[in-house]
Amino acid sequence: MRNILVVLLVLFSFTGISQELNCKVIVNAQQTGSENLPIFKTLEKQLNEFINKTKWTNQKFAPQERIDCSMFINISEYSGESFKATLQVQSARPVYGSSLSSPIYNFKDNDFNFNYLAFQNLIYNPTQYESNLVSVLAFHVYIILGLDADSFAENGGEAHFKQAQIIANYSQQSNLTGWKLEDGLQSRFALIDNLMSPTFKEFHSAMYDYHRKGMDVMSVNTKEGKGQIASALSSFKAMNSRRPNSFLLRIFFDAKADEVQQIFSDGPNVNIADLKETLQRIAPMHNTKWSNIKF
Fold first, then answer.
1. Contact (Cβ atoms closer than 8 angstroms) between residue 95 and residue 219
2. Residue range(s) defining the domain that contains residue 282
């Protein structure tokens, strides 16, 4: 009996401490002409451990519940401890009743400059600036967590977005690009400012309706699920009328455009004449895809 209790306690403890992410971090240094230097492999290994072994929340994630995501770091220049790079972040969530994944986040961060020494400690402090390397990665981790939570519960990502905003605020002291208002309309500052603004409140409800009421229903009732997805997308009209061609809509459709085209190009047919017109208005950069939707 005692042995059984010990096994149960070990299993419970393991489940309790499971981290939130299943993230693949790739460091590419081809543009530097020195891609075979050990420093780049060391950086890649450390970042994989940092992202996947840090406990980012107080929630319990079973191993199979960890969020699939990737971070592709493309280093263009380096000198000593100084690195200049871009960061492509992607994440997806499972679709209920199927083996499919639905893309959630697809963001290219063009302002990823950082200092790094091989084997330096990478420690995330939720209330204090440590380094731009840690801040940028932690910021995107919380965006991943927030968007994923939004897709499962109405406004489920609010706490994660608040933490991303805290990171953005204290990282402004670095004076590095991406954290401040003057850094443009497609920066980290702009992203979290939009996510926290009531101007874009429909974004969060649409994330929930699209995924939980739409994608997760399609395995049981495809037509009903498609109708819910169409309704969720149509809700962006109000947001777009307030702020045309917003950054958040670009973020959404950079992840979703291919999926939306595929959903409404397969049967069963639903009447989406109005939706197609809405898509052409709110996401004109993907009009080639919308023109391929037949109904």
1. yes
2. 202-291
